[in-house]
Every structure is written in structure tokens, then in C-alpha cells.
Amino acid sequence: MPVTPDPTDLLFEAVSFSARAHRHQLRKDGRTPYAAHTFRVCLVLRTVFGIDDPQVLTAALLHDTIEDTPTDFDELTETFGAEVAGWVAALTKDMRMEEHQREAEYRKVLAAAPWPVVVCKLADIYDNLTDSRHLPPDRRDRSIRRSGEYLAALKPTLPPEARPAYSVVEQRLEQVRMAAEG
Hints:
The protein has helices at about 5-20, 35-50, 55-60, 65-70, 75-80, 80-90, 100-110, 115-130, 135-155, 165-180. It is an all-alpha fold. The chain has a single domain (about 5-180), classed as Hypothetical protein af1432.
């Protein structure tokens, strides 16, 4: 009889996996290791949104691995299971597309996504908005605009489980907009 891995063990493995996958990358400020973003997204889910499901937290840690590293869907499936890999795939933009088409397609996928994907994206938006204070005004404005577009895409089909997190991110967006307007 196969042994089912402990979900917490998978979460701990995801921390290491994310750190290794993003080890040579930096955030937009050019100083912060990229893995700090994935760790913060996981922390936002847990401490700000109150979500403690180990699989959802695992997906948060891995949310940028397919998009931004050589990691592929099969590797995530083998290591973390099909459900987590599917959530990460839904959080992945198709970088082969032209930006406008890519963003439109990504918003469609997010709007149809299950609640674990939606809350991971909301945590990602929250962290990106928080981090935008370190960006030059033009890049901060782009982050604010893009965050608003994602929230608008999610709102019509927002799963009930994601509503509290959505409200928190909406408030964060308004705070960041007001601070940017000075």
C-alpha cells in the first residue's frame, strides 16, 4: 500500500523547490532574491487571508515556477501532484503570446479558475502592490493598472471562498493608488 505524503512535508519541499528554481533571479528592485516574492505570497495567504490549506500554500510557493524558470508541468505533477500542478499552470502566463493577447487570455483563465487559484493570484497581487513602492513611478503605475485589470476580471465569477481575500486586495489597491497620487 503506497504511503500518502504528509501535506506539510510537501509544503516544506515547495519552499526548497521554489528557492532552488528562482535561485539566480532578482525582483524588480535588482537586489531582492526572487524567491522572497514566492515566500511572501505564501505568507499573505496564511497570515493576511487566513488560509492554511497546505496544498494551496504549496501552489503559492510554486506559482511562478513554470512561467519564470525551466520547471515544467510534468516536474510539478511528479513532485507535488496533479492538483497543485494544475493550479500552478492556471497561474502561468503563456509567454509565447504577444503581451496584449497573453494578458487577455490570462484574465480569462483566472476568471474561470477554482478558488485556490484565485486566492493565490490575489496574494500575488497583494504582494506586487506592496512591493510597488520600490518601483519608479511608471512601473508602479503599470503595477497598479495591471492589478486593477486582474481584480476586474475576477470579480464577476469570484468564488465565495475568495471573497474575503478579494476585499483585502481591493483595499490594498486603493491604498497604493492614493499613495501614488500623493
